[in-house]
Amino acid sequence: MEFQDKVTKKSNLEFNDSISTFDGWGAQQNPNSFEVFHNFMQEIKPIQILEIGTSLGGFTSFLNYTCKLLDLPCKIITYDIHYKSWYEEMKTEGIDVRVEDVFHDNYQSVNQEVIDFIKSDGTTLILCDGGDKIREFNLLSNFMKDGDFIMAHDYAEDRKTFEDNVHMKIWNWYEICDKDISEPCLRNNLTTHNKEIFDNIAWVCKKK
Predict the structure, then answer these.
(1) pTM, entire model
(2) Residue 72 φ then ψ, to 5°
(3) pLDDT tens per residue, range 79-112
(4) Architecture label for domain 39-207
(5) Domain chopping of the chain, boundaries
(6) What sign has the CA pseudo-torsion 176, 179, 182, 184?
């Protein structure tokens, strides 16, 4: 695939190095994430992507590149609570980077603009990759429409699965598991999407 030549560095779990590099941008991802998400975006054709946790910007830049590559009319809004100088360059590429804590009242509420964005016409993809993925998922899933997707990073099914099958093999970070999101999934009628594929890059994916 055209984008694969742009992956110039891969994370090294042996040295607890989470950084892969896409087109010069750092991304805290398993290097297989790029191909998986390329295929996923081609499958679901999102109209808007909401990302919590911009961080180094590499994964966001990859998503933006992929939307252009696939000719998807997709708007990306990404939030982080810490400003980075490279966010200005990301903005010139058409990415709406916002430095703001949109969660309030101990994750009981979120800015109305976030709710409105999720509820916009067309398929919304929500990516929970900020500082509290469990509560991000729990809250943001409440506003999904039928056909929308929500995902969270640093995932494993449970602690044993992480220790036996994920750690030092797929990903070294474990911040969310099935029991953490079972209630919002039931409440919002969310179903698992492509579990085996996303398990292999430490993401969970649910569809409304």
Answers:
(1) 0.97
(2) -95, 125
(3) 999 999 999 999 999 999 999 999 999 999 999 9
(4) 3-Layer(aba) Sandwich (3.40)
(5) 39-207
(6) negative
